[in-house]
Design goal:
The protein contains 26 helices and 17 strands. About 1% of the residues have low confidence. The structure holds adenosine-5'-diphosphate and zinc ion.
Length: 601
């Protein structure tokens, strides 16, 4: 049997295994079942691809989306691996060819969709083929608990009975306790060894900005990121269309994607995005599941996501290649109330609504954070970390002030007006505005009238949001209106028994500083060199009809620029250059590197 490390180096061009990879690989090679739980980008694929090449026979990989399968197969073929997909997109002849290769042991990996297991004759085909292992990718699809439930995954339970001697490995990046338990039970993996990694994605920088004007702020953000690929999420289809149009008008080539588009058009746009190395995709959350694009450099949210889980998953599509990437979000005062209204107005059972409200509160705590955002995000998944140094709060700590008095004013205004009004009216009272409603209700006679006129409306809005996030104020929805009431701890503040620290609202977003990011692969400062190698990569990719990242990842290009290899042997030492790619592309890149001016340092 070949040695796993040798396979890693020769085929994939990497020096060493990461994290739990080696342990999971060894378990599968020994013939044991495994459950692998790693964040996106940690390298789950190698956990079954390496055993597939070490063990005799063909590895059967269950993957939920045909597009994803084809990308993975193409990437493996680039590395000289014998891989194929077996799905409904094949015609009869191609299918017969793949099936024959499976029986004859002429394939290392075959990717199949879960539906295939219900097709007549498929299990018989598997019995005739020498099997190395079963890999069940995106295994959370088996759970009704998660948001990607695929009933067809349930059929995979049959593998345990029909093929007891073939090791099975299930993999996912989604894993709260309930989902994990579902996977183990539904897939009969009770005896599987478990490999669980932390959730942190250190190369992703998290930033939240108060929303003023979506498109203007987005354009400012994009200005420093020309030529980078990214995803922009919006809450509604109409907003997706509008933002796309405005980006294109401003000279940023952008594609729109949402469920309102015809299926063929969606597939085509997704393929164009994956194949580009600088495309911007503006989308609803309908986009992204199964996108296997390593060089997404940013994920921007123009509206609040649905929950922190959703946010983690959506932002997780950035920086899978380990290079610095950004998760950037705009947050407006109305967002939480709007999501609250969705929850209240839904048909769900009261118990479910309670869960949803809890998730919304967690999301608000993240958006209103006064301390490290990564810590809040990881804390939500039960992980802990030190202040990260790579989120907007760590990089530019907000100024805090003793907000006890301001909080007392706001709470008192809420209380004295009878806990029946939204933020707008409360702020009018605080700032002493004689509006029609204020006068009609005689709120101008309250002792709190005008006590807060020194603060701007934006400041009061920020204070009310922060008090809500701290649960000193409870925002409730009554027939479509948000009503502010006192939260359980409010009385202690009003009585002066509890102090309140508040974050100073910044007047304008400062330009983001870009210090070197910790824990990420080195990026070359040679912009021109990078563009030259990128152009070559684009040309080679177009010749073969594959996406540029399948030729080499960005990290490989950066590494080449930093190392300046001058021979094929030196190119072979660059991580990510395996034997097949060395032979195919080594010379072309060597020549391109020689043609560059000598590096500055
Ligand atoms: P996941 O499926 O967990 O999201 P992938 O399997 O797509 O992650 O791997 C993410 C990236 O990390 C890929 O570009 C992969 O080639 C790279 N990678 C995985 N394992 C290693 C390793 N041991 N050394 C270097 N790069 C690796
Ligand atoms: Zn931080």
């Amino acid at each position: 049997m070949p040695d796993p490390l040798e396979v890693l180096r020769r085929v994939f061009g990497y020096e060493a295994f990461r994290g739990h990879q080696r342990a999971a690989i060894d378990a599968v090679i020994r013939g044991e079942d495994a459950l692998v739980l790693m964040p996106t980008g940690a390298g789950k694929s190698l956990c079954y691809q390496v055993p597939a090449l070490v063990r005799q026979g063909v590895a059967v990989v269950v993957s939920p989306l045909i597009a994803l399968m084809q990308d993975q197969v193409a990437a493996l073929v680039q590395n000289g691996v014998k891989a194929a997909a077996l799905n409904s997109a094949l015609d009869g002849r191609e299918r017969a060819r793949v099936e024959r290769a499976m029986r004859e042991g002429g394939l290392d990996l075959v990717y199949v969709s879960p539906e295939r297991f219900a097709a007549p004759g498929f299990l018989d085909l598997l019995e005739q083929a020498p099997l190395a292992l079963f890999a069940i990718d995106e295994a959370h699809c088996v759970s009704q608990w998660g948001h990607d439930f695929r009933p067809d995954y349930r059929q995979l339970a049959v593998l345990a009975e029909r093929f007891p001697a073939v090791p099975r490995i299930a993999l996912t990046a989604t894993a709260d306790e309930a989902t994990r338990a579902d996977i183990l039970r539904e897939l009969r993996l009770e005896k599987a060894e478990r490999f669980v990694s932390g959730f942190d994605r250190p190369n992703i920088r998290y930033t939240v900005r108060p929303r003023r004007e979506r498109v203007r702020q987005l354009l400012a953000f994009l200005a420093g990121r020309r030529g980078e690929a990214g995803i922009v999420y919006c809450m509604t289809r109409s907003r997706v269309d509008r933002v796309t149009e405005e980006l294109n008008r401003a000279g940023v080539p952008a594609l729109a994607y949402h469920a309102g588009l015809e299926a063929g058009e969606r597939t085509a746009r997704q393929a164009r995005f994956v194949a580009s190395d600088d495309g911007v995709m503006v989308a609803t959350v309908a986009f992204g599941m199964g996108i296997d694009k390593p060089d997404v450099r940013f994920v921007a949210h123009l509206d609040l996501p649905k929950s922190l889980e959703a946010y983690y998953q959506e932002t997780g599509r950035a920086g899978r290649d380990g290079l610095p990437a950004e998760a950037w979000m705009l947050y407006g005062p109305g967002d939480a109330a709007q999501l609250g209204r969705f929850i209240d107005g839904s048909e769900a059972a009261e118990e479910q609504k309670h869960v949803e409200r809890g998730k919304l509160e967690a999301l608000m705590r993240y958006a209103e954070a006064a301390s490290c955002r990564r810590r809040i995000l990881l804390g939500y998944f039960g992980d802990d970390c030190e202040p990260c140094g790579n989120c907007d709060i760590c990089l530019d700590p907000p100024e805090m002030f003793d907000g006890t008095e301001a909080a007392q004013m706001a709470l008192s205004a809420i209380y004295r007006t009878g806990q029946r009004f939204g933020g707008g009216h409360i702020i009018d009272v605080l700032r002493g505005r004689e509006t029609e409603r204020v006068l009609r209700l005689r709120h101008d006679r309250l002792p709190t009238f005008g006590v807060g006129k020194d603060r701007r409306v934006a400041e009061w809005r920020s204070i009310l949001r922060q008090l809500t996030a701290a649960e000193l104020v409870a925002a409730e929805n009554l027939e479509g209106f948000t009503v502010l009431r006192l939260g359980p701890e409010a009385r202690a503040v009003l009585r002066g028994e509890r102090k309140v620290q508040l974050r100073q609202e910044k007047r304008e977003a400062r330009p983001t500083r870009q210090p070197k990011q910790p824990g990420t692969a080195p990026v070359s400062a040679d912009r021109e060199g990078f563009e030259a190698l990128r152009a070559l990569r684009r040309k080679l990719a177009a010749e073969q009809g594959v996406a540029p990242f399948m030729v080499f990842h960005d990290s490989v290009l950066h590494d080449m620029l930093n190392r300046r290899p001058s021979s094929l042997e030196e190119i072979a030492e660059v991580p990510g250059v395996g034997a097949a790619k060395l032979q195919r592309y080594g010379k072309a890149f060597l020549e391109a590197l020689r043609a560059l001016p000598p590096s500055a340092d």
